[in-house]
Amino acid sequence: MISFSCRRQEGIVYTGSMVLRGTSHAVCDTKYHLVWAPKYRKWILRGDLQVRVEEIFDEIAWSLGFVIEALEVSVDHVHVFSSFPPRYSMARMVGMLKSISAGGIFREHPEVRKHLWGGEFWEDGYFVRTARG
To answer: CB-based burial of residue 120 (10 Å sphere; 0-12 exposed, 13-18 middle, 19+ buried)?
Structure first.
């Protein structure tokens, strides 16, 4: 059996220089770089909409119990550097971020529908890479 000293604090496990995330049945160190774009790769993520997308992603992360380590919202795509518990699959996490944020954006910024016909805010696909912290 491997033994190491650590201390827990609100779902975070500190082991020397490494910070791990803990749930009731798991301790993990998962980090992912996710990238996706608005439908038709439109240049619409500007100004108030850009700021609101960042806020919505932070709200989603807080409510679902995962961490967004870094977030960049460019005019035509987003980069999310995230750490989430193993109970969420990659596809599920991306799906939740995209669907919840799209609903909020369409409700709060109905003018976006003029640029994105078809009722979808985000492209169907995404890029993902596992990353080291």
So the answer is: middle
* Domains in the chain: ranges and CATH: 1-29 (no CATH), 31-130 (3.30.70.1290)
In order, the DSSP letters of 22-37 are E-SS-EE---EEEEE-
pTM: 0.79
Residues 6+ apart with CB under 8 A from 55: none
- How many angstroms separate the Cα of 77 from the Cα of each of 7, 80, 109, 121, 127? 38, 10, 18, 11, 11
pLDDT digits (tens, 9 = 90+) for 20-56: 666 667 777 778 999 999 999 999 999 999 999 999 9
CA 114 distance to own-chain centroid: 26
Distances (CA, A) of 109 to 25, 116, 131: 40, 12, 33
The SS3 of residue 5 is coil
CA distances from 98 to 14, 19, 30, 52, 72 (A): 31, 27, 20, 14, 15
